[in-house]
Write a structure and sequence with these properties.
The chain is α/β, with parallel strands linked by helices. It contains 7 helices and 8 strands. It has one domain: 3-Layer(aba) Sandwich (Rossmann fold).
Amino acid sequence: MRICSVLVFVLCSWPGFASDWLKDAQVPELARELGIHAGSIVADVGCGGGELSVSLARIVGPSGRVYCEDIDEGKQWGLPAARRRIGKQHLRNVTVVRGVADDPTLAPQSVDAVVIVNAYHEMPRYREMLRHIRESLRPGGRLVIVDNRPQRTATRAREKQTANHVLSIDLASAELAEAGFRVVRREDAFIEDPDSESVHWMLVGEI
């Protein structure tokens, strides 16, 4: 029986999170956690303006591929902005994908890794999304899921939290277990921003 390892490293906050938080020194660390390298195929689910996709494209190189997926066709943060950024960088190893609310529309067993940055709390149909992500991963594939920790609403209903662009690590952990992931690492304070007093957690899971 084959076992798939999945790293759940979901980093969610406000639009622009990837560019504001993932500094140059952090992107290689993220790539190591994803397990990607030259030639890998990775999906940036909820890619927003495509900042992270551009960085990942340089890591996987011309023999690899990045799927830059989102459902937002808005001009500021959505797929049009991602297309412009990718075009300006002349990246031929990035494919822009228009997903739907419950499915990133990736082919089954087509990617080595999936990363969700600044998007998971925006996915009300998370059960279906997690199922489709699992289906898209190759054996041994990894998923990186981090989210903004609630300061005062951690015990409130999920929809109350996500309306404020936050999500409790306890809720997320339960959702991963429900989707068939086994949580193997939990960090309640993965990234801290002293300027805004925000804290982002990380969960690591596998199937």
